[in-house]
Amino acid sequence: MRRRTRLTAALVAASMPLAAAGCSSSSSASSGPVTLSYALWDQTQQAGYQACADAFTAQNPDIKIKITQAAWASYWQNLTTEMTAGDAPDVFVDHVAYYPQFVADNQILDISSDVASSAVNLNQYQPGLANLWVDDGKRYGLPMDWDTEGLVYNAKSLKAAGIAPSTLSSLTWNPTDGGTFEKLIAELTVDDNGNNGLSPKFDKNHVKVYGFVPTYDDGATGQNGWGDLAAENGFSFLPQPFSTSYDYSSPALAQTIQWMASLAQKGYAPPYSKSSSLGVQTVLDSGQGAMTILGSFDVSSYTGSTAKQSYGFAELPIGPDGRKTFINDTSDAIWAGTSHPQQAWKWVEFLASPACQDLVATKGVVFPAITEASKKAETARIAEGQDITPFVQEAQASGGTLIYPISQHEDQINTEVQSQLDAVWLGQSGAAAALTTAQSAVSGYMSQP
Amino acid sequence: MADSENTAASAPRVRRRLSPGRTLAWAVLIAALVITLFPFYWMIRTALTPAADLPTDTTALWPHHATLINFERVLGLTTTAQDLAAGGSGATLDFLVSLRNSIIYAGLIAFAQTFFCAMAGYAFARLRFRGRDLLFGVFVMALMVPPIFTLLPNFALVKSLGWIGSFEGLVAPSVLMTPFAVFFLRQFFLSIPAEVEEAAALDGAGRLTQFWRVVLPMSRGPLFTIGLITAVWAWKDYLWPLLVGPDQNTRVLTAALGIFLQQSPDAAPDWTGLMAAAVLAVIPVALLLVFFGRRLVESLNFTGIK
Amino acid sequence: MAEISGPVGGVALAARNRPRGTSAGAARRRRGSGARRGDGRVAWVFLAPALLGFALFYLYPTVRGAYFSFTDYDLLSPPHSVGAANYRALWHDPLYWNALRVTLQYVVINIVSQTVLALGLAWLMFRLTRSVLIRVLLLVPWLVPNVAVGLLWLWLLDANLGFVNHLITAAGGSSQGFFTTPALAMPAIAMINTWQYTGYTALLLYAGMLQIPSSLYESARLDGAGEIRTFTRITLPLMRPILALVLIVSVIGSFQIFDTISITPTHGGPVNATRAIYYYIYQLAFTQFRMGYACAVAMTLVLILGVLTFLQMRLLRASRSDLA
Predict the structure, then answer these.
(1) Does residue B271 sit within a domain?
(2) Average pLDDT, chain A
(3) Which of A390, A396, A137 has its CA nearest to residue A242?
(4) Are B116 and B35 found together in one domain?
(5) Are residues B146 and B234 in the same domain?
(6) Is the peptide bond before C270 cis (omega within 30 degrees of 0)?
(7) Do B119 and B67 fall within a single domain?
(8) What is the CA radius of gyration of chain C?
(9) Distances in Å between the alpha carbon of A91 and those of A36, A108, A291, A355, A384?
(10) Percent of chain B beyond pLDDT 90?
């Protein structure tokens, strides 16, 4: 009995430091070959970053980069599970909405001193991006790429409806009657008998082509649809980053959500319960949907030789408060538990430098954050047949962009708001009621430490 | 065991006319078999469908353009460009390596655990010592502890021993014992008459010898049963191997499948690739059934009472 | 049914292995030789591995988990005690009660459908045909990892392209979004698990049926009893112990449903309809870093399972086999 207790006690003692220790940043000045693990979610970008990794290893032969990918839907859960297990990647692609929670949980490193000593030129990035990553005087990332939202439409459907593409740059929207945007959606909706949504003979129970395919599982910010429109309706999530007072019960948001839910009721959009697991793009590719809102990071999958239909792109419609789009930013974060913080910083520095971002630009998938590289990307993308001018123009329009709400408890808020919106999409609840419930839950989370 | 089967077998086997009742019964049984097996057929069918055809070719019983590309890319036999074009994300399954790992994992645990639990079960059944029944009761109470509870502390322990990413770490929590195996084997050992052991004792055999030379050889049936059930459980284990052994050299098949699912293209799940991966994951089971099916099924009949 | 198939098979078979003679009788027989007075020392040799495993991987984590349940612990900084705050919080947590409710819904649908179907299948295998091939085929789903089963059914039940919806629309109905409709999501998951475990359960029950002496069937046949009469009057009552055992152990395993839910795209949705207790605990610990609270919820699960196990013991004692 005594023998066993001693052994058990020894093992208890051995594992205590693990429980007690927060971040185990053993910064041994390790020489010798090192392999860093780097995680990202978008496999279309993987080729670009692999090119960066190869270039980096050519310059730093002792450091190899191993890139892993997990789809967005599993990326964050994967990451937090790995952090919990003490086994997270050394560097990972971080998102503006998720990083505050990592900061609060001491999971990512403050790189402000490294940035200062390496004299990284913060002005080389698109205006406004670099500051997104500063919290309480400390810096947690350097901008990696940016994106905006816009419309993608089936060019053939548009032509068949007799609409000129040039009219799309001046679409209007409001939550009451949907403006010319809803009119366009109705015109693009075609039922089995060939009647479009505006026709009195339109049969909303037998729709062949939906005019608009919403993204229903869009999290707590609705980046791919309702979030942008709500902002155009005067809604703002937070007064400023890191504030704790969300405003989900705002009528401006409720109106927007209610409008979006009404599309399915009118037969212009597929109902939530029929969402295919294959995603919005498949609906468009199979010709069952004519239009949706997408991020500029998705444009490359709609163009090129493997495209299933011929698509055109346009800016978002203009709402009561003008035209607004999320401008999103990602960065590269260093996990606090990495055993190679110096090498990790070298890799992050490289990723944020023109050397890497120029390489990424040539692949024509995303817009790198460095202004020069971004211009190169525009050229490359246009050369590949991607009409990304609407996205670029939106980014440049003054007052036309809004940033993600940055706060704590992103994961809980995401789950809660998505749940409540599910009820609205399913027709089980009105938007105002659902959002009020969401707001009280969110306030509860924000009042937690 | 064989006796009860045969005696019970003789009675209802009287050949009756094909009454409506019997026809109905057969229809139900065949329906059950179809429901059991059709999904696997559909899995294979989908795996043979090119991804581009999925939205349109949904209901035909055989794909219009059957192809092996999905298997090729899941096994890593295509280039990344080909993979992306065929609807994948560049991810592969590392089938043979994960299969090997799964076999090692399940095999190690099945053998070791059965052996150690047999020893413990024997001790609880036959040996006399203070607090025996109390200790056994405590063991059984461990049955009620939900694995999620022990997951994290076990992980912390394995990590502090430096066993993350090694087979030692993978098998650690299960290789020594599980409560039900101890329970099951103790019940069995209680049921065998003690005369044989007593005879051996009179010949001068100590407890260990009795166990090793006399009892164990007699217990092949239940030992095989418990080993089998343990092996199947370990074969299917998902969360623990995923946490402790995500790297290639210790990744088991279930974890590989889970990781492959996570590595789907960002836009939509790679169904044809997933089904191809699932087919590969089922093949070992199918082979097992072909070679050991009868043994497997009959071991579940085991009553263990002599 | 049991996400952990071990306990079902193990304890089920253990029940059938219940000693015929009493252990007291055996002990009396054993007390003959003086050399066997106390096995204390050699018992250590036999027990050492299992005891080590028990202490390290069951006792220690349980104690630690219980301790964490009274703390606020995010796994990254040392835990600090908060008394019973976690337990108070879960009492007021709608997601907690939701988790219990949807878990209960799952358990009821899964266990009832599985047991009924398994009984029927076992009876068919017992009376109609003793074919080994059929039994092997029925066992296939049980042997397939839950991850693969979940993926397969996710695809079969897809709202637009799934084969099940194809059958439904061909029969005149409208296609269902199984995983996006709150009322259907959990029942769908329950039936997936029924599909996976019915064959296995049927084989266990079949083995129980083999224990019934054929003489009883002979006399029933001579009395002119039909199939249904024979089943309800002879087989079912005599199977009470094995049935009770299989049932209750499956319930305990059923409570721990996790793998299938973790694969569905809604991660516990829609509208929390599939956020079962196990999955909720996992999310609390691994995505929200709320280990202390997660342990408190897990403790309540231990309590619930304890009550169920206690009921199991009671029911088992109450249904002593009429054959013994």
Answers:
(1) no
(2) 86
(3) A137
(4) no
(5) yes
(6) yes
(7) no
(8) 24
(9) 7, 9, 36, 18, 31
(10) 14
Query: In this complex, is the C-beta atom of A419 within 8 Å of any C-beta atom belonging to chain C?
Result: yes
User: Between chains, do A11 and C181 touch, taking CB under 8 Å as contact?
Assistant: no
In total, chain B counts a number of residues equal to: 306
- pLDDT score for B1: 40
For residue C30, pLDDT over 60 is answered with no
Q: Which of C322, C314, C312, C293 is nearest to C92 (CA)?
A: C293
Q: Which of C126, C128, C145 lies at the smallest CB-CB distance from B257?
A: C145
Contact B55 A69 (CB under 8 A): no
CB A284 within 8 A of CB A290: yes
Q: For residue A217, count CB atoms less than 10 angstroms from its CB and return exposed for 0-12, middle for 13-18, buried for 19 or more.
A: buried
Asked whether the beta carbons of residue B55 and residue A43 sit closer than 8 angstroms, the reply is no
Is residue A104 within 8 angstroms of chain C, CB to CB?
no
Residue B217 lies in a domain: yes
What's the domain range around B196? 95-263
Asked whether residue B40 falls in the same domain as residue B174, the answer is no
- The total domain count for chain B is 2
Six-digit token pair at B88? Answer: 């994948």
Domain range summary for chain C, segments of one domain joined by +: 93-318
Residue C1 has pLDDT above 50, yes or no: no
pLDDT at residue A43 tops 50: yes
User: Do residue C19 and residue B191 have CB atoms under 8 angstroms apart?
Assistant: yes
DSSP B176-204: S--HHHHHHHHHHHHHS-THHHHHHHHTT
pLDDT band at B2 (very low <50, low <70, confident <90, very high): very low
Give tens-digit pLDDT for B123-165: 888 888 888 888 888 887 777 777 777 887 787 788 778 887 8
User: Could you tell me the pLDDT band of residue C214, with boundaries at 50, 70 and 90?
Assistant: confident
Task: Tell me, yes or no, whether B291 lies in a domain.
Answer: no
Let me know whether B143 and B219 are in one domain: yes
Q: Using the beta-carbon criterion (under 8 Å), do C137 and B33 form an inter-chain contact?
A: yes
User: Does C286 contact A22 at a Cβ distance shorter than 8 Å?
Assistant: no
> C93-318 in CATH: which number?
1.10.3720.10
Residues 158-197 on C with a CB inside 8 Å of A are 158-161, 175-177, 179-182
Task: Look up the pTM and report it.
Answer: 0.80
> Does B137 lie in the same domain as B237?
yes
| Predicted confidence (pLDDT) per residue in A378-424, tens digit | 999 988 888 899 999 998 888 888 888 888 888 788 888 988 998 89
Q: Which residues 6+ apart lie within 8 Å of A264 measured at CB?
A: A214, A270, A271, A272, A425
DSSP string over A182-224: HHHHHHH-EETTS-BTTSTT--TTSEEEBS----S--TTTTTT
Q: Residues B206, B249: one domain?
A: yes
The interface predicted TM-score of the complex, written ipTM, equals: 0.81
Q: Which CATH number fits domain A32-147+330-391: 3.40.50.1580, 3.30.40.230, 3.40.190.10, 3.20.20.140?
A: 3.40.190.10
Q: How far apart are CA C149 and CA B238, in angstroms?
A: 13
Lowest pLDDT segment from B121-135, C17-31, C300-314: C17-31
Residue of C64, C271, C291 for testing the chain A interface, max A β-carbons within 10 Å: C271
Asked whether the beta carbons of residue C289 and residue A419 sit closer than 8 angstroms, the reply is: no
From the list B42, B125, B296, the residue facing C163 with the nearest CB is: B42
Q: What is the pLDDT of residues C234-277, one digit of tens each?
A: 888 888 777 877 887 788 788 888 888 888 877 777 778 899 99
Model pLDDT, residue A6: 37
Sorted by where each begins, the domain ranges of chain A are 32-147+330-391, 149-326+409-446
CATH number at residue B169: 1.10.3720.10
Report the amino acid identity of residue A290: A
Average pLDDT over residues A160-185: 92
Chain B positions in Cβ-Cβ contact with residue C57 (cut-off 8 Å):
150, 154, 157, 172-173, 176
Check residue B108 and give its pLDDT.
93
Using CB atoms, pick whichever of B85, B157, B271 lies closest to residue A306.
B85
Does the domain at A149-326+409-446 match CATH 3.40.190.10? Answer given as yes
Please report the pLDDT score of residue B302 as a whole number.
62
Residue A449 has a pLDDT of: 65
